[in-house]
Write a structure and sequence with these properties.
about 230 residues, five-stranded parallel β-sheet, binds calcium ion
Amino acid sequence: MAKILVIEDESSIQKLLSYDLTQAGYQVDTALDGTTGLKKAEKNDYDLIILDLMLPGMDGIEICKKLRKSNNDVYIIMLTARDDEFDKITGLDSGADDYMTKPFSPREVVARIKAGLRRQKKTKHPNRSIALKNLTLDINRHELYINNKLVPLTHKEFELLLFLLNNKGIALSRDILLESLWGFEYDGDTRIVDVHIFKLREKLVDSGVVIITKRGLGYMLEEESNEN
Ligand code: CA
């Protein structure tokens, strides 16, 4: 049974989520403020965290950053109060895997959670690694090494890198990346892909591997040429 932590200070939403998720067969733990939420997330091994952005004590962004900094790659769905672009981008930038805008239906939450857990499991299953130039991606352990040095990745960055590596030399449109990695319609908003590509690029410095933008086609991973 998957264990889910819900960090949300609005008790009505908290109760509703707990009820819906328990009904859906998940084991649910809750926290009503940021500090307690972070403590629980650090102490326990959750399969997924639903994290509200605005929280007393410590906000969702900070919790996310702290967890990622300590190499915690738990799948995080961030909740934002309204359809606010700034919130979304900031949320993803802090290392969240997915986000949802309030209000949402129980069915939508459960669907997102299922997709998240499925992806988590799928990428944790294979037992192998990919090596290219100065980069090694340990698929089993979700770890990226560049020049034998560990470079922390969020879950989504790992998935994205794996997908790009598996499709090396092929230009991938934002729609394909969105569909393959998130599996949802983001009301046509593909900036979620751009943000993740941007973060991943920063981490691939010195790897000998680059993600280039093919105008009108999308993104493509290739080996860096040796001439500088
Ligand atoms: Ca809140």
